[in-house]
């Protein structure tokens, strides 16, 4: 798509504008500056193709020396952050600020930190690499031609069910986090492994809302798996996730 080899900031901005025309994405000066920093410090060398687009963020595949990365760009004007911003200081430890850019930069750092804690604990998830402003660089999940599909679009095997529930258990028992927004849309399947994604909103297990959100996550995933006739008992799955028993015995 575009590269940083021997290019100055002006040329990078010009190529970003070309990208916007092709894909309809809008980058403000704050985002362009942060992308420029990733080029100049040699974190990435080229954007390859868009991976995903949502209300809060855009994700691109990027490369450097034949190695691929996922670059998640949080939109600095995302309206979906308005309600979160009101109680972010209490729930997620983010300053309650009217400075939208500062708030979203803190949100990106939070996802970077949560991914680090999760992967260090053994959760199957993209490894975080770097965060600059509103941009998070992490492990790319997929092939060099296409990104990994969401769980909702894949065959649900028993092996996949076991690995998914084990990751939720590891997140809770070792990383001491509750995702809080799990569904078949929050796992990417690559080489028969479920990668947990979108973890910025995860909360500590000692939070007053942790149990409620954990039960919600378990309920949603259990009901999804049971659509494929696995007949999982939600209460037993919950006990397994918190470390009390093995639901697969």
What does this structure look like?
There is one protein chain. With about 250 residues, this protein is α+β, with helices and mostly antiparallel strands. It folds into 2 domains: about 1-140, Phosphorylase Kinase, domain 1 (2-Layer Sandwich); about 150-240, Transferase(Phosphotransferase) domain 1 (Transferase(Phosphotransferase), domain 1, Orthogonal Bundle), CATH 1.10.510. The protein is about 40% helix and about 20% strand. The protein is built from 7 helices and 10 strands. The protein has helices spanning about 10-25, 30-40, 80-90, 100-120, 160-175, 210-225, 235-240, and strands at about 1-5, 45-55, 55-65, 65-75, 130, 135-140, 175-180, 185-190, 195, 205. The protein has a 6-stranded antiparallel β-sheet with strand order 1-2-3-4-6-5, with helices on both faces. Strand 8 (about 185-190) and strand 9 form a beta hairpin. The longest helix is centred in the middle third of the chain and has 22 residues, at about 100-120. The N and C termini lie far apart (about 50 Å).
Topology of helices and strands:
Blueprint: E1 2-3, H1 9-23, H2 29-40, E2 46-53, E3 57-64, E4 67-74, H3 82-91, H4 100-121, E5 128-132, E6 135-139, H5 158-173, E7 177-178, E8 187-190, E9 193-196, E10 203-204, H6 210-226, H7 234-241
Antiparallel strand pairs: 1-2, 2-3, 3-4, 4-6, 5-6, 7-10, 8-9
Helix pairs in contact: 6-7
What is Rg?
19 Å
The profile of the biggest β sheet is: 6 strands, antiparallel
Number of domains: 2
Measured as a percent range, the helix fraction is 40-55%
Task: Tell me the name of the CATH class of the largest domain.
Answer: Alpha Beta
- Distance between the ends: 50 Å
Do you know the CATH topology of the largest domain? Phosphorylase Kinase, domain 1
Widest β-sheet, arrangement of strands: 1-2-3-4-6-5
β-strand number = 10
Mean pLDDT: 87
According to CATH, the homologous superfamily of the largest domain is Phosphorylase Kinase, domain 1
The succession of helices and strands, N to C, reads EHHEEEHHEEHEEEEHH
């Amino acid at each position: 798509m575009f590269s940083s080899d021997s290019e100055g900031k002006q040329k990078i901005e010009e190529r970003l504008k070309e990208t916007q025309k092709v894909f309809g994405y809008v980058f403000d000066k704050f985002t362009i500056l942060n992308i420029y920093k990733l080029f100049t410090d040699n974190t990435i060398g080229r954007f390859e193709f868009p991976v995903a687009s949502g209300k809060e963020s855009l994700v691109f595949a990027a490369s450097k020396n034949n190695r691929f990365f996922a670059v998640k760009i949080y939109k600095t004007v995302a309206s979906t952050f308005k309600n979160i911003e009101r109680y972010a200081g209490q729930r997620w430890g983010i300053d309650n600020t009217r400075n939208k850019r500062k708030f979203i930069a803190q949100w990106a750092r939070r996802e970077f930190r949560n991914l680090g804690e999760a992967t260090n604990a053994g959760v199957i998830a993209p490894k975080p690499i770097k965060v600059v402003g509103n941009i998070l660089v992490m492990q790319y999940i997929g092939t060099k031609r296409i990104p990994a599909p969401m769980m909702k679009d894949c065959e649900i095997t028993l092996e996949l069910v076991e690995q998914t529930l084990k990751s939720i258990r590891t997140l809770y028992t070792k990383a001491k986090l509750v995702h809080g927004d799990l569904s078949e849309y929050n796992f990417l399947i690559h080489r028969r492994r479920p990668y947990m994604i979108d973890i910025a909103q995860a909360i500590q297990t000692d939070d007053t809302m942790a149990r409620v959100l954990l039960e919600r996550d378990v309920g949603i995933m259990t009901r999804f798996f049971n659509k494929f006739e696995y007949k999982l008992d939600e209460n037993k799955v919950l006990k397994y996730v918190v470390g009390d028993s093995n639901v697969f015995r």
